[in-house]
Amino acid sequence: MKKIVLYALFSGLIVVFLGLIVNSKESIEVSVDYGINEYFKMDTNGPFYISISNNGEDFEGFIELETGEKNTGTIYRQEMSFPKGTTREATFFIPVNIHLKEPVVIRVKNHQGEIITTTRYEINHQKVIENELAIGVLTDDPIASLNYFETTIALNESKRNTRLIEIDHTHLPVESVALESLDVLIINNYNTSILNNNQYDSMMEWVDNGGLLILGTGSSHNRTLSVFNDTDLPISIKGTQIITTDFNIHNFESIELESIKVVQEGFETVFDELITLIPRNDGQIILVAFDLEPLNHSEEKESFTNAFFSNQQDITPPDYILRTEHESIKNRLEGIFLIAPTAQMPSLYFLMFLLLVYAFLAGPITYKIVKKGNIRNWLWVIVPILSFVFVGVIYIYGKDTRISQPFINRVNFITLGEETGDVTSYISPISMKSQDLTLTFTNNDFPRMWHDTFTLYDGSVLEGISKNEGEKSVMTYEENNTIIHVKNINRFTPNIIETTEKVDASEQNLYVDIIYDGDYINGTITNELGYTIEDAFFWSKGLFANIGDIEEGVNEISEEVIVIIGSTTQHINEQLFPMELAISKDIKRYEKQTMRQRRDIIETMHFHKNFVPSNESRIIGFSNEKKDESDIEINNQIPIEHNVNVVIKNFDLDYNGGQVIQFPLQYFYPWVPLSSENPYASSLHDVRVLRNIKEQNIRFELDPAIEIIEIGFEIPTIEGQVFNPYEDFEGQVYIYNFGSEEYEAFDYKNETIKGGYLQEIIDDTHIFGEMNVKVITNQDTSSKDIVIPVIEVKGRRK
């Protein structure tokens, strides 16, 4: 017997010893690559590519990547097998934020949790792009030949520096999310046929999601365009030609270029018709008819760059703006998620009735029992029994209103195109008590999580609210699922997780056919979504109409349009959900909750730029839905899910069938160039004002699709709650004449601009016609905001 025990013990020691040999540090080699040629952009999801070479024996285990080693962070984990003599690869998408200032810790473990090897890897912080426009460049020319794209440009009312990132096909990722580190991608004189299908698809998906792809052509067009199919690039080329052009840029010295002859239909062209703009969902392909390298030899190259990017105002804003918006969205979402739409609560009046019944019955019943049974000594038993009975009645009656299991609140922002839709979901798993949560997502969801540490985008809001500082959330990537394990979540705390997906909208969509005649919108909206859209409204550049519910099928629309200037979301909310209804005793509690929730959602949409003046026309509405089974698991159980769908349908508005109308104030929005001394545009509830300055240049962008008949000036009236004192502008207005190249005084109170003078004061070389105005006042702008005039346009939509 002793021999058997000794033999078993000896065998066990051998197994342990061999395991240590198999899993020794020397048998494992770890290599790391990250970003796009090691470049990251703040507040995006950057890729880490990890390779593990096993020179020892086979073993099963996993790779871990930890951020924020010394602080609250996240552990990303992927399980895999490690056969002898093989190299395994794993890709993790890590939120780029302040946690990456610490080394990233990479561990290889076996299934027993034993660490085989640990590698600490520090990224190059000089290659973390912050507040700059990130421009990737694929070219076989020296990157210095495109250095004129690395400059300071005016973009989104701010001055932005650009950063060129040299890449080749080995750096171009196969996942579109990895391309988030780029705002712009330039391909010029590069053989794109070496790109594989996954790289091409990810590049096109990145464009769909808002990327700007610039294709330089000229004599090398066959190389640059070789990978693009006719669907993605619906143009044809009929040879090349030598041209001389100034790009229709004022004071630009002409240059000789070799240009392709582009044949296309329906796409807008700019810069002397040498640049074709091909929109794709939220992004754009810009086809340049010439090779971009020769411009490097022109003294006017920076003028071209500034003029080029001045037409691209939809590029990502600076990071500090994104962070401010991110924090504002998070605060709104927390308020939305705290309104848990559960079963309807019992009426307060009914509860008071039960209380009165108890008060009136408990005494007589007790008295009768005591008198009849002559058992006064049992009062201490009888009274509690009656109380327990009463509490039991309330408990049984309210059983459907109690929350006993974690549930999910979800807000889906559904933006519908013609054939596809983009869905951004904000998901909040909510627990009734402090406990560990394990959330299981399908890999198609690609969950990304928020937290409030440093108010930056990071691995998870969940670990940020964990009770014990230093505890890590663990995100495990399996073959079909992503599992997030969070320690000790605080009860009833909204935990925000974001997912994005593209959906097929070819059969389930909204079809809008309405006309704006200057006073009303009239027409039809056909709802084929399969559910009613509630509290719908129309919005287009300051025009608003309350539509109400859009039932399934064809809906006839005839609604008065009002103009909203200033405090946009406040006015929309008051039109849809007046405050007197929110406090009315006639409105049921759950209806008030729905109103409050939708008010917060509209505020959230403001930060998503749904109501900025440059927006196209859209129909927006809501739909609430309770799902008995979520597609997300919590602790291996399927929870109830409360959905709020926000449906956004963009469409081309018919302006009075092409007849002349008076466009509302603020339809042509006044853009204000910023300076380093004044990094924020001065505005008061979306109305431009003079604040601490007496002179201001203003740029009005005039839609080329509108034939302008007459332009006048008007001072907008600010409505809504205003805390700053303000007064109307009194002073001089000057209009820039592109013919004389001077600002000319204009009597804005008594005159209008029409006829030939329109051609002199509108620069039509940009995508948007440009009208430049200067205002000067002697009013006190230090103690009051001075509301500046805006243009009032009469014209027709072409």
UniProtKB/TrEMBL annotation:
Lineage of producing organism? Bacteria, Bacillati, Bacillota, Clostridia, Lachnospirales
Give TM segment ranges: 348-367, 379-398
What's the name of the protein?
Uncharacterized protein
Keywords in alphabetical order:
Membrane, Transmembrane, Transmembrane helix
Please tell me the species this chain comes from: Natranaerovirga hydrolytica
Q: Which SUPFAM superfamilies match?
A: Class I glutamine amidotransferase-like
